[in-house]
Amino acid sequence: MSTLPPCPACNSEYTYEDGTQLVCPECAHEWSATASEAASDDAKVIKDSVGNVLQDGDTITVIKDLKVKGSSLVVKVGTKVKGIRLVDGDHDIDCKIDGIGAMKLKSEFVRKV
């Protein structure tokens, strides 16, 4: 049984190694073996302040008072947020906070419940 990944062009399972390259005999596509390893690790893992892995739909708690930019509102310590959504970017949590509305938070300021 082969442990090589299938061809990314035609999805053929008959790939083989040729030096540092992987080759597909059916469509003649060639690609780097290291690129295929990096592609399998594409999923970015987002962790909270204590190292727990976060997922869409989780409930989190804010661990620090956070000022809301452009207003006088503050998200207080201990505020629970239900049904988060993970997004790409610096602020990687998209959520709705009761009394404030839609916000984006950084994962370093929350803890999974």
Automatic annotation (TrEMBL):
Superkingdom per UniProt: Bacteria
Domain Protein YjdM N-terminal, residue spans: 3-32
Gene3D superfamilies, alphabetized: 2.20.25.10, SH3 Domains (2.30.30.40)
Keywords: Hydrolase
InterPro entries named in the record: YjdM (IPR004624), YjdM_C (IPR013988), YjdM_N (IPR013987)
Record-annotated Protein YjdM C-terminal domain positions: 46-113
GO terms for MF: hydrolase activity
Similarity comment: family membership: Belongs to the YjdM family.
Record protein name field: Protein YjdM
